[in-house]
Each structure stands twice: as structure tokens, then as C-alpha cells.
Amino acid sequence: MPRGNGKTIAQNKKARHDFTIEETFEAGIVLQGTEIKSIRNGRINLKDSFARVNNGEVFLHNMHISPYEQGNIYNHEPTRARKLLLHRKEINQLIGQTQQKGYSLVPLKVYIKNGVAKVLIGLGRGKKKYDKREDLKRKQQNREIDRAIKDSLK
């Protein structure tokens, strides 16, 4: 199965608006207790989350996974830092690229692939305000062109 395919649980739509994604990486997540049950129920939020490389390991910060309702004492802290599982070669590549000015690691989506929770993280450069406006104009123009083509075919 190609990278990023599987049953999508959560998607960070704002990430592609705020960042120009140049490369993506598929990573596993180290979860505790009832976190996977909450993820399967769709109780996850990627808004304002980011990844960071610390001591040769990649961690995902501010990803909110709601506590599982039937979890009682085995529940987890909702916004704890979670370790991402990547190959050493990928981590070394990320270390080199994130040290460049303007690059950051952004989670794009969380999905279930072969029964395992995965995160698609993107290496992105922050967009300026005028870039965001240009993208919105381009999308609007494409919509209008598609509508015109559709109307002309009727």
C-alpha cells in the first residue's frame, strides 16, 4: 500500500494552507493504554500540532487524543508528546532539513493501515500572507473554469 493510504481518521486541512509541503514521511506512533481506541473512534485533533526532533528521536507535540470513555484508571493525558517511529536514515534527513531556516515538521493526517495507527508528516516551509491569497485566488479561478466547462457540456 502506498504512503498515506489507509482508513483516514483525522486530517489537518490548515497545514496545507499555512505551509508549502515539500516532502512527506510515514511514521508509526508510540501509543499508551486506551489511545488507539480513542483514535479508532475518531476522537483525535491535529490542529496546532507539530513534530520536533530531540536527541535523534522525533516527537509529536500538541496532538489531542480525547480520553476513552470506558478507560477509567488506564486513560492517558490528552496532549502529551508522542514518539514517532521512523528509520534512522529518515531521521537524519529530517535533522538536516529542519535546521534550515523556515522549515518545520507538520502532521498532515492520521490513518489506520494494516491495523496500525500511522501519521503522515510533512516537511514544509511556512507561507507568507500573499502566497496564501494567491492560492485562494487560483482555487477560485479553477472552480469557475470547472463550472463553465460543466455548464457548456449541458
TrEMBL record:
Single Gene Ontology MF annotation: RNA binding
Annotated region described as Disordered, given as residue ranges: 131-154
GO biological process, one term: trans-translation
Intracellular or extracellular location(s): Cytoplasm
Primary localization class, coarse: cytoplasm
Keyword set includes Chloroplast: no
Keyword Glycosyltransferase: no
Keyword entries, A-Z: Cytoplasm, RNA-binding
Protein's UniProt name: SsrA-binding protein
Natural source organism: Halobacillus salinus
Gene name in the database record: smpB
